[in-house]
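Title: Prediction job returns without error message
Component: structure pipeline
Severity: low
Priority: P3
Assignee: unassigned

Description:
Job completed but the reporter wants confirmation the result is attached to the right record. Sequence as submitted:
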Amino acid sequence: MNRIILLTATLLVTLLTFSCQTAKNGDHPEFSPPEWSYNATIYEVNIRQFSEEGTFSAVEAHLPRLKELGVDIVWLMPVHPIGEKNRKGTKGSYYAVYDYFDVNPEFGSKDDLRSLIQTAHSLDMKVLLDWVANHTAWDNPLTQTNPDFYVLNEEGDFIIPPDTDWEDVIQLNYDNPAVHDYMASALRYWVEEFDIDGYRADVAYLVPTEFWIRARRDLDAIKPVFMLAEAHTPELHPAFDMGYNWEMHHLMNRIARGESVPNDIDAVLNDVRNNFPENTFMMNFITNHDENSWAGTEFDRLGEGKDAFAVLVATMEGMPLLYNGQETGFNRMLEFFEKDPIDWDFDSKYIEFYTRLNQLKQTHAALQNGARGGKMERVATTANDQIYAFTRSAGDEHILVVLNLSNSIASFEIESQLPSVGMDAFWGDLSFEAGSFPTEHQFGPWEYQIFTSSR
């Protein structure tokens, strides 16, 4: 009898250990990124500020332009009605959700949203909805019908999310299984009824991983979806395909300020490789809605280095993000709680700049996302404190990227052996045969060049 108990306990410990390792490593074989995501670039739409109209229809009208730009995935910031109680500013935050099953009437109707999604699909583009699972608006009807869905203080009052200043929202209670059921049903609704292609999950790390696994299972049973977590958290990746590369983003800002050097990039890359599942995509960016509204534009934070860092984002391991307006060099912090439309400059040099980068990614297997893309291999130079150079390879295809990530002229020599194939300049004016790449180089401040193998 004791031996049976001992064996049972041992088996239980083994299962629990395996379960913990699975959660830690994100190794969940039933989930995998959909096929269309491996070669994709994602584009974030701030619907309110995207146009003077601030509507779904106005976004839909731009989809052919975005397709030509090289956008594959359109991420819509939250589309739901916004709460009135304790609202911030005149318009309120997208992330103070009043009703998870409806759309903000300021943006249009459900039929307008359906039309946007259908047009995107006709252009072979995908649509993600931004999802706020951790909290709701103060006046969400759930506060009346299901107050047990919320965390309450000792006085029985609703609370804002702990350790935040988010005074326009209140904390949901995931210790209540009914909250899991409700939120999972709401997630299914938009896939079943609107044919969306996945979600970007706001502050995903504040919601239990077990919920996200359950939700992903439900959604994949309807259609293969793509899941983006607003988090740099390996434990979430049993359920999510992509996370935020916050560490790389902050490092780029520090390099631009002269507080870090290009060598530090290797440590961030290795941290991702060592701690995240092999097929995790990391989303790379020089701006997004949070950075633009609260930390400054890419022009403010990266200065003259903004283009070089954009090249790095487009060619490094992971999926590049474009935030609306970035593709035309829009240089203003957008108001978050008020109407403040983008001033579009469609004659901007940046349209060609980002179109070329997106086309490079789409046409070269070495730049694919996740495990299918080529691993970044550092190319050593005699100026590693200024120059960051690397190759990515897939089969007989090679990409070489050389960046001066400093505000000074860099004179350097290549010390690593380069791919033994001819290389043509994708960006720049140089081509070279195997073994003939010039030994000595001089790059101006923030100069960059990209080479692709001859085929």
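Comment from assignee: result matches the submitted record. Residues 1-26 have pLDDT under 50 and may be disordered.
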